[in-house]
Every structure is written in C-alpha cells, then in structure tokens.
Amino acid sequence: MSLGIMQTRSGRMVNVLNFKPEDVDLDDIACSLSRQARFNGHTTEFYSVAQHCVHASKVAEQLGYIKPVQQWALLHDAAEAYIGDIISPIKALFPGLDAVENRILYWVCVRVGLLPPHRNPHGLIVKMIDEELLAIEAAKFMTPDAWPNPPASRLHSGFTIESGWDPERARLEFAHRAVELGLTPGAKLKGGVS
Predict the structure, then answer these.
(1) Per-residue pLDDT reduced to its tens digit, 47-94
(2) Between the CA atoms of 17, 22, 23 and 29, what dihedral angle is there, to the nearest 10 degrees?
(3) pLDDT of residue 185
(4) Per-residue pLDDT for 130 more than 70?
(5) What is the pTM of this model?
(6) Which residue from 129, 149, 117 is spatially nearest to 52, judged by alpha carbons?
(7) Residue 1's pLDDT is what?
C-alpha cells in the first residue's frame, strides 16, 4: 500500500495525506470512533471516542448552545476516524500530525455544511466542553492513582455518565445523533435511525 492510504469500513480507499470531501462518510466515522477507546484504553471500563462525541453534543445542548455548536461538538474528533485517537503526550511528538488532522476536519465540515475549523466561531466553546468532559470522564473512568489530579470542571454542567457503551451502541447513538442534528452529507447513516 502507498504512503498515507487506508481502507475504511465501507471499503473506500482514502489517502489521509490528501483527504478529499468525497472521502467523508459518516457511517465510517461512527463505526471507527465507536471502536476506539478514549485514554488509549487505560480506563476502568470501555469508553469510546464516539460516546465522548455524543456526550459533547449533549452537553452543548444542555448548556443551551445552538445547533451548529452541537454539530461541531459531535464532529470535533471526526478526523480520528481516519488517523486514530492519538493521546496528547504522543501527538505532541509529531507536530505535522496537526496539519493532517486539520485537513481532514476541514473536509468533514465542508461536506456536512459546517464552517471549517479555522473559521468556526464555535471552536472555543467546544474546546471548553471537551475539557469539561475530560474532567468528568477522568473522574468516572480513570483510577485515582492513574490520574491523581484530574482536570477541574470549568463549566459545571452537572453532566453525568452512567457507564461506557459497547461499540455497537456507541455507533448507533452517534449515527442517531448525527441524523437528529441534520448532519447527513448525502450519505446514509445505518442502524437505529428511521
């Protein structure tokens, strides 16, 4: 296989180094993120990136933010469907990875009708929601000795997480939330959506 080319769940051949709008498939994103563990899998139970993204969009809704904020919150980690959820300490070692991630996010946003990351006024809000969830998730899914000083909650959303979802439920919840928020770039989202 050539450098940067991967095959997605749907069978598409995607060049992550030359990502294009036609490479975006919300089914592929939902499937991939539902199978990727947050915190590199070092949690007390399985907790997926897809579940994290659904929760981010729900926190945005709970805090009264408009639909585009909720949409951006759901898709803020969509590039990880193509490059993986690389933990921050490792990502910092590869500065060029940000450019790849940003290009993928750019085309995801364009494909679903959102402003791209560099022009998206909701980025800061979603970053705060992401940090809020990090605090909640660390408290719920990390052992105290693994993370003795988890980040503090700044938004005080009161959001709680009962448990981690299995990958299939996470995929279905992500797909359902995408449709609920009107994120259908001409692609069909399968399962659990009528």
Answers:
(1) 999 999 999 999 999 999 999 999 999 999 999 999 999 988 898 999
(2) 140
(3) 59
(4) yes
(5) 0.90
(6) 129
(7) 52
The ranges assigned to domains in the chain are 22-180
Q: Using alpha carbons, list the distances in angstroms from residue 100 to 6, 18, 36, 83, 154.
A: 14, 8, 19, 8, 30
Structure tokens at 21: 């709008």
**Across the strands, what pairs with 101?**
none
CA atoms of 85 and 74, how far apart (whole Å): 15
- Whether residue 68 contacts residue 112, with contact meaning beta carbons closer than 8 Å, is answered with no
Contact at 8 Å (CB) between 82 and 106?
no
192: left (phi over 0), alpha (psi -120 to 50) or beta: left
Tokens (6 digits) for 99: 């450019």
* Phi, psi (deg, nearest 5) at residue 150: -65, 155
Total count of residues recorded for the chain: 194
Task: State the pLDDT confidence band at 30, using cuts at 50, 70 and 90.
Answer: very high
Q: Of 30, 43, 76, which is closest to residue 147 (Cα–Cα)?
A: 43
CA 140/CA 44 separation, integer angstroms = 8
Q: Say which CATH topology domain 22-180 has.
A: Hypothetical protein af1432 (1.10.3210)
Q: Residues with Cβ < 8 Å from 130, sequence gap 6 or more? A: 56, 73, 76
